[in-house]
Automatic annotation (TrEMBL), chain A:
Domain ABC transmembrane type-1 per the UniProt entry, residue ranges: 99-305
The family this protein is said to belong to: Belongs to the binding-protein-dependent transport system permease family.
Membrane topology (UniProt): Multi-pass membrane protein
A molecular function (GO) term: dipeptide transmembrane transporter activity
Protein name per Swiss-Prot or TrEMBL: Peptide/nickel transport system permease protein
TrEMBL record, chain B:
Record membrane topology: Multi-pass membrane protein
Protein name: Peptide/nickel transport system permease protein
Keywords tagged on the record: Cell membrane, Membrane, Transmembrane, Transmembrane helix, Transport
Membrane found in the keyword field: yes
UniProt source species: Nonomuraea pusilla
Top-level taxonomic group: Bacteria
Domain ABC transmembrane type-1: 74-259
InterPro entries found in the cross-reference section: BP-dependent_transpt_permease (IPR050366), MetI-like (IPR000515), MetI-like_sf (IPR035906)
Family: Belongs to the binding-protein-dependent transport system permease family.
TM stretches of this protein: 74-97, 118-145, 191-215, 236-258
GO CC field: plasma membrane
């Protein structure tokens, strides 16, 4: 566990600093948004002198920018991200009520990436230069750069409207209905990452089966099954971890696009509603939480590398 | 066999890019109808006489709007790609060749940008601060520079120990001169390939922003915006949203294939 602690000791202060910088930028959004800050925070309520005064007092608007920032940051650290301009509810509560859909979508997409990307990559590597390899590799080229929202509309048309296999709107009820509703969105979100994992798994597997120790293993008569499961599969763990980390980091951006495409009431859709309603505190809350989540995931991915790859453990200690 | 499949994909991509180039120049003139003229009596028609791809909700001709949108779809991303490449190449040369504090500063900034949800930040910045299309272009450029700088720095580092650079130093040439006259041509293949991939990033991001109603102005025949506006017409005239989606995918995939291929070549060359 030594290398892990050393990694944490080195990375945690950097992560904290990074988060501090992001929080300053996110807070600055309010000052940079067009129009007066009081009006922006007042929202649709009538702009009476008392109301404006109350806002000024509540957000310390008569004080310098950095003091305002300090008050806001203190609140955030205590879990208070302010109040939604649109509904008057706490920002944290508004995010929490939308979070489950986005988390389920991200989890579904991650499952698809691992359960489709790894087997396809191994298949392509095992049938190297055969028809299956060509088909998989060509598909990966197409899928890797295809943007999620364009793919989403095409999926909606083919599988929703033409074939009628999947619902075209909303998130459905909890349970099996939810899975059906989230299938097309999860595919749209995962597609480019599935292609990436397939490519990397293929490259990693081809690399490891051409090594001397596996030639020796084959010469000793180890069955191909053992070689592929025990050696090739294990060596794909690092690229797969990288991609899962990437998809979690990218999930928030992807979620905005995919949730808008499929009319899902998740955090991504909340961002767009808040942007169009000029509900700056909610936008700030989501942006800051998303940045914190991405920083945490990056840290976890680096820790996972240490657990997966003994070479990295040695290099670190 | 592999090489041949790759050649085929590259050739197909080259043809696709060529077609897009023709459309940029001639797109508006090829349009059969006025892309902005609506006709509510002909709302959301399927493909038929006079409208090869049908019409949108306001009765505007889809094919004409797609053709009129080609220029914006390509020119904006091109501007982002060129600006990013120019700045990232300068910073990459500085970081990779000069090293020292310049390297440290540039690389810390690159790490910083790497560990943030860049796409979400673009949406938030353009959405909250406003500024429309120019703001979208600037934000995308700023957020793309760190990653590209890292790529350029990587290839510059690989050149550092090579004899031609040592020879230039022994001759007593100035460092800026060495960097621009001698180093730059040797990293140029990678820079060009990477510029193509940056173009794809910009194209996808800009159409994503338009899809969300940010960036391109309302009513403009932007592919991303058409995709969003016509998405509700999937049962009446599916072509209204399928064709912009296909064009975005086609442009992104063909440029990625070309960029990847050039990048592979450039890396092979720099290794030998």
């Amino acid at each position: 566990m030594r290398p892990a602690l050393r990694l944490l000791a080195r990375r945690l202060p950097v992560s904290a600093l990074l988060l501090l910088a992001v929080s300053l930028a996110v807070f600055g959004l309010l000052a940079l948004s067009p129009g007066s800050t009081e009006r922006a925070l007042l929202g649709p309520r009538p702009a009476t002198a008392e109301a404006l005064d109350a806002i000024r007092h509540r957000y310390h608007l008569d004080q310098p920018f950095l003091v305002q920032y300090g008050h806001w940051l203190g609140g955030v650290l205590r879990g208070d991200m302010g109040v939604s301009v649109q509904t008057g509810e706490p920002v944290a509560a508004r995010i929490a009520e939308r979070l489950s859909i986005t988390l389920e979508l991200g989890l579904y997409a991650t499952l698809l990436i691992v359960l489709l990307g790894v087997p396809l990559g191994l298949l392509a590597a095992a049938r190297r230069d055969g028809a299956a390899d060509h088909a998989v590799s060509a598909g990966a080229v197409l899928a890797v750069s295809a943007p999620s929202f364009a793919v989403g509309v095409l999926l909606l048309y083919v599988f929703g409207v033409r074939l009628g296999w999947f619902p075209v709107f909303g998130a459905g009820e909890e349970g099996w209905d939810r899975v059906r509703h989230l299938t097309l969105p999860a595919v749209a979100l995962a597609l480019s990452q599935i292609a990436l994992v397939t490519r990397q798994t293929r490259a990693a597997a081809i690399d490891v089966v051409s090594r001397d120790h596996l030639t020796f293993a084959r010469a000793r008569g180890l069955p191909g099954r053992v070689i592929w499961r025990r050696y090739a599969l294990r060596n794909t763990a690092v690229p797969v971890t990288t991609s899962v980390g990437l998809v979690l980091a990218y999930a928030m951006t992807g979620a905005v696009l995919v949730e808008v495409t499929f009319s899902l009431p998740g955090v991504g859709a909340l961002v767009m509603e808040s942007v169009s309603n000029k509900d700056v505190p909610v936008v700030q809350g989501v942006a800051l939480s998303a940045a914190a989540a991405v920083i945490a995931v990056n840290l976890l991915v680096d820790l996972a590398y240490l657990a997966l790859d003994p070479r990295l453990r040695q290099a670190a200690s | 066999m592999r090489a041949r499949a790759g050649d085929l994909a590259a050739a197909a991509s080259l043809v696709t890019v060529g077609v897009f180039a023709v459309l940029i120049v001639a797109g508006g003139r090829l349009a059969p109808a006025d892309p902005q003229r609506g006709d509510l009596a002909a709302s959301a028609l399927g493909p038929g006489a006079g409208h090869p791809l049908g019409t949108d909700e306001l009765g505007r001709d889809i094919l004409s709007r797609l053709l009129a949108g080609t220029q914006d779809a390509i020119v904006g991303p091109l501007a982002v790609a060129l600006a990013t490449t120019l700045i990232a190449t300068a910073l990459g040369l500085l970081a990779g060749y000069r090293g020292g504090w310049a390297d440290a500063v540039v690389m810390r900034c690159a790490d910083f940008a790497h560990s943030l949800p860049v796409g979400l930040l673009t949406i938030v910045v353009v959405g909250v601060i406003g500024g429309g299309y120019p703001m979208a272009l600037v934000t995308l450029t700023v957020l793309a520079i760190p990653a590209d700088t890292r790529v350029v720095r990587g290839v510059v580092l690989a050149q550092r120990g090579l004899p031609y650079l040592e020879a230039a130093q022994v001759l007593g040439l100035r460092r800026t001169r060495i960097a621009i006259v001698h180093l730059l041509p040797n990293v140029a293949p990678t820079v060009v390939a990477n510029c193509l991939l940056t173009f794809v990033y910009a194209l996808v991001s800009l159409s994503a922003l338009s899809f969300l109603g940010l960036g391109s102005p309302a009513g403009s025949p932007d592919w991303g915006r058409m995709l969003f506006e016509n998405r509700t017409l999937l049962d009446l005239n599916p072509w209204a949203s399928i064709t912009p989606a296909l064009l975005i995918v086609l442009a992104a995939v063909s440029m990625t294939v070309l960029g990847d291929r050039l990048l592979d070549r450039a890396l092979d060359r720099s290794r030998t």
